[in-house]
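S1.2 Input.
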Amino acid sequence: MPTYEYQCKDCGERLEVFQKFSDKPLSVHPECGGKLQKVFHASGIVFKGSGYYVTDSRSGGRKSDSSSDKSSDD
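S1.3 Output.
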């Protein structure tokens, strides 16, 4: 379940809540009764696995430069 962060507009307190995607967002602070607002954070992008670089998507159609260097050294 995702964790959402809310901030109370009245008292300024921040709270984290585990909610399902299908749950409605909270609107009232449980302690002071103030109005809650969702806090959004910038998130970084992480690429994992192959296919993100030009050389990853090639399927051996081109030999590596190291094999051609060895033949030119003779």
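S1.4 Remarks. The chain has one helix and three strands.
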